Structures are given as C-alpha cells and as structure tokens.
Amino acid sequence: MSYPFTQIVPYYDNPEMFREQQRVWRGLHAKQRASLHVIVVDDGSPEYPASKQIEPETVTALASFRLFRTKVDVRWNWLFCRNLGAEKAQTDWLLMTDMDHVIPGTTWAVLMKQKLDPLNAYRLTRVDMPELTPVDPHPNTWVMTRHMFRERVGGYDESFSGIYGSDGEFQGRVNLWARTVVMLDAPAIRYNPDAIADASTTRYERKTVEDRERKRAIRESIRKLGNDHKPKRLTFPWMQVYP
Question: Which of 90, 129, 209, 226 could form a disulfide with 195 if both were Cys (CB 3.0 to 4.6 A apart)?
Fold first, then answer.
C-alpha cells in the first residue's frame, strides 16, 4: 500500500530554503514523488515572492505542484496558509509543516507505506541540521486526514492571525478529536539560519507583549462563546499563482 500525500508548506520570503525544499523533493524515490502532491502558499512575501523561485524540474518531478498567494501581508498568517492548502488538497492524507522543516525520503517511506489510522493525528520526531542532532518534536508538524483537519478539528482559527505563537490553540483542539501519535521512526529535519540564512522568518518580532495580550483577549472571547465559537477559516483574499 502507498498512501498519496499532500505536503502543505507556507512560504514567506524564504527563497534559499524553498530551493532546498525543491532539491529534496526532486531527490525522493520515483515512487514517492509519484505519490507526493505539494501545495505552497506564499504568505504575501514583499521581497522574494515564491512565484519567482519555482524551478521547472520540480514541477515535473512531483505528482502535482500548486502555488497560492495571499493578497495581504499579515504577520504570522501561516494559519490561513495551512487552511487554504487543506482546502485545495485533493488527497485524503495531509502533512503540514513549516518551510524550515524538510521531510526526507526515509520518512516518506514510513508515512506512505505504514497503515495509518484516520482517527489519529500523527507527529514526527525531529533532528537538527547539520549533524542531525535529535531535538524535541516540532509542535506544528502534523500528519492527519483532510477530513480530520477540516471537519473534526476545524482547521486553524484565523482569529489568531497576526499573532506569534498560536499553535497551542490548534493542538488543544486536535487533542479533543484525535489520538495523537508520535512516529518515532519518521523524523523531520529542521534547518536553522546557520545552515540556510533565510530558513526562518526574521521580518517580524516574536513573543511580544502585544501578542500575549491579544491572545489572552481572544481566548477569553472564545471561552465566553463556548460551543457557539467556530474557528474562522479562509478569511483572507488569495489567488492561485501556479499553475
């Protein structure tokens, strides 16, 4: 058995890291590439749009490649990017991760051949470049079905768009709807800026006082609404760039 997958990756002014991702995709085994669909969503990059970084040989190597772009540049709006990618995916299984996390062929071999339970949400172990040093699993790399993501968990809540560090809210809802399993034999590889300079976003600040205050206010509003609150999805304008 070989599961077809859609890998969903937000992009924000990461041209060198995007080229590394493409190099890795092209280097996968032919059977893996034939089962791998990739969706990249450009989060409104002002300097190096992803459309200028696509290498033609990448497009022909994969089962499919599509690029979308938000029409507004909102800080830390990867939540919308992942929601849009899941909306446009055409496979049952999704792998969502960040641009600085690469999924090697050995990990795809496990994911595409192992019997996966659609009632589970899977997390991957993680190693750091260049020595492949084991570190804690990435809190925001997820493997789950499209149905689990959209219909049960509800996707990412774009109420938190523009705020750094909102992945915990999503993880809490995953824990309500799915059994979370860490796949010990399937690591993601993280690139830090020492390995590739633009692996991480540096334009926007992280963990600001304003972020904490906004998160607190939004969480309180959600708490008061209780079951009446539904995660906001696909609330930003977008366009399809490729093909």
Answer: 129
